[in-house]
Amino acid sequence: MSRLGDAQTTSDTYPALRQTIVALGDHHSQLVTPSGISQQGLPIGTGIAAINAELLPPGIGYVYIPGFNGQGAESTAFADALRNAVEELDSDEPCGWVVDLRQNIGGNMWPMVAGIGPVLGEGDLGAFVTPDSARSIWFYSEGAAGQRLASGHTSVLASVSGTPYTLAASELPPVAVLYGPYTASSGEAVAVAFRGRPLSRSFGEPTAGLSTANSSYSLSDGAVLVLTVATDADRTGQIYGAELQPDQRVSWTTIEPKSVYDSASAKARDWLLTQAACEGMAE
To answer: Taking a C-beta distance cutoff of 8 angstroms, is the pair 24, 228 a contact?
Structure first.
């Protein structure tokens, strides 16, 4: 309380709040003032136009997932666009997939999971773990992504419209996940969702280190206090909270979303071609 000094207004508390946030040391909590909100609006953008999907020779599906912070109808539109990109690419019968999260700076993880769900696979994917060890389980099921609380209550937080898509291949495909220092927050959560998945391997560099969950609290003057309230855990139960280390560290010279032939993508492609589903596909 001594940090508040003679504070009389909400804005007078900003210095004390900022000092407290620094003291927390989680690197994810923040205070967004009304002027900051008006300047940045807290969005990362719709991201739909930035989704990129293409077939890499000799037959590997590549999907780039950008950061996204929309809600409601925008969330459904993003999930649909990502699902549609996966469906269109799957018509080429790829033997494996590359999921590129290297420019995914976060936002709303749920439409990302709902859209890439056909590649990720059905079931429990990970969890948010609170300081008292309560777990909120993430899941993907038939085009919907959400969480299941310890109480058993289930919430669908994003879903595709229309009929959910299922990959044409009957077997779970191998997936290479790319990430690095620009992969942050919800981008890291999507990366965590692939950890522990059979036939998955990650390539690139350590992530931003924000593998935690935040809740937002509005202040009386319109400012927003964003506080870290839980830590990401993968489907095996491993808890993160800091940088995600890739299975195979690979540096690259660019993070342009359509740079699909860089060193990290090449290593991912080489690994995929060693998998049974891609046997005989090497050029």
So the answer is: yes
